[in-house]
Amino acid sequence: MIAATTAPSRSRRRVRLGVRIGLAALAVSAFSAFGTPAHARGPDGIADVAEKVIDAVVNISTSQTVAAKGGGSNTMPQLPPGSPFEEFFDDFFKNRRGPGGGSKGGDNNPPRKTNSLGSGFIIDASGVVVTNNHVIADADEIHVILNDGTKIKAELVGVDKKTDLAVLKIKPPKPLVAVKFGDSDKLRLGDWVVAIGNPFSLGGTVTAGIVSAKNRDISSGPYDSYIQTDASINRGNSGGPLFNLDGDVVGVNTLIISPSGGSIGIGFAVPSKTVVGVVDQLRQFGELRRGWLGVRIQSVTDEIAESLNIKPARGALVAGVDDKGPAKPAGIEPGDVVVKFDGKDVKDPKDLSRVVADTAVGKEVDVVIIRKGQEETKKVTLGRLQDPEKVQAAVKTDEPAPEKPVTQKALGLDLAALNKDLRTRYKIKDSVKGVVVTDVDANSDAAEKRLSAGDVIVEVAQEAVSSGADIQKRVDQLKKDGKKSVLLLVSNGDGELRFVALSVQ
Fold this sequence. Notes:
single chain; seven-stranded antiparallel β-sheet; disordered N terminus; 28 strands; 505 residues; 13 helices; elongated; alpha+beta
C-alpha cells in the first residue's frame, strides 16, 4: 500500500512521460512557427536585392604618405573625430612597417605610406562612384576595387565636407553595373533596408535591418538629417550604399555610434534626397553651390513664442540680417519668425538651414514670416553661400567692472546708458545702440539665460530702448497686460544679435 501511494505505477508514468514529450514537441513547434523573431527571418527579397546590386558596390582603397614619428611604426592617417575608421586604423595599422619602419634609425625614419579602406558604389556605368569624404580625405592615391577584384585608379571629382560625400571617376576596362537612387522620403519606420560594404576589409558583406528613425539630428554638421538603421554597419562600411527592397539606393552609410567599436545597431546614413543634389552639383561644378538667405537664426522657445504671440512655438527666429545678404532688400528684419520657405514648412532652424541650402542659387522664393503676430510673405532671390558656415555665439566677458556707473535695476539686471567709458570698458562698437548690462543677479532668470556684463539690450518687446528707465517702463506695461515674459533683443560688443525671453513675474 505504501509503495502504491508514494510512487506512480509504470502505466501512469508512461502517460505522464507521453504528456511531457507531447508538450515539449508542441512548444518547439510553436516556437518554430511563431517564436522566431522577425529580424531573424527577414523578408524573402533580401537575397534578390543582394544578387541584383552586389556588383555595383565597390571597395575604396587609399594611400597617404606620412612622416614617421618616434620610430615610424605607429603613424597612421589623421581622421575626423568619431570617424568609423578611427579605432580600426589604430588596431589594424599600428604594427605595420613602412619603408624603414622599425629600423635602428630612431627619429630619422623616412616618410612612409599608410593605407585605408572603405566602401562606395557605382551610380553611372561610365565609371562614376560615390563614397564618403572621410574615406578619401587627404589621400595621395585612390583606387576603386570592383567586386571581382579588379583594381582601378580613381580620380577625385569633388567633395562636400558638410554632408561628408565625395564623387570619384574611374576608367573601367569593361562595362560596369550601376545602381540608381530611390526616394528616401518614402521610407517608413520599420521598412527593411540592406547595407552592403567592406567592413573590416571583408568586401561584399551584406547585412539587413530596418529603418529605426528618420530625420535624425546628431549634431555632426549644419545639415544633419540622417536615416537611422539597425542594419549592421561597422568600420569599413563608410561610403557604402543602403538599399531598399527594390534595390534602389536610399542612403549612404556614414556614421555609427558604438562604445565598443563594433555595431550595436545604431548606424546612420545620409538620405538619398540629400545625396542626389550633392552628387549632381559635384559632377557638374566640382563643388557645392548652396543657396544663401543672409540671416542668423535661433530657436523659437515657448517663452519667445508667447512674447511674439505665436501658437504653437515653431519656425526659425531671425536674430540678425546680413547687410549684404538677400534677406535685407526683401524686407526681412530681426524679430521675424520664418515659418515657411518656398512652400515648405519650417519647424525649427535646422529645417530652414537645410531647405535654403538645397534651393538653387538665384531662385526667387516666397518666405512666409510672422511679424508682431501677423503672417506676411516676402519674396527673396537667393544668393550663393560663399564662406563656410560658422556657428556664431555671443562673445562674453567675465571681467568685473572696476566701477559701477549710475544704474537702474530691472529683470535682475543692472542697466546703464551707453557712454564712451562703458564702450571702452566692454569693447562695444560705436554701431551698437541700446542699454548696457553692468551686472547680473546670480539668482535671476537673466543669469540662467546667460546674460552677462557687457551685453547690450537693443530692444524690449520689439521697441528700441536707450535707458534703464525705458526698459522698466516697457516691463511694467507688459505686467499690466498680463504677459508672463518679455522678449529682449540683445547684442554683444561686436554687434551680433540674439533674442532672449525673460520672465516678468
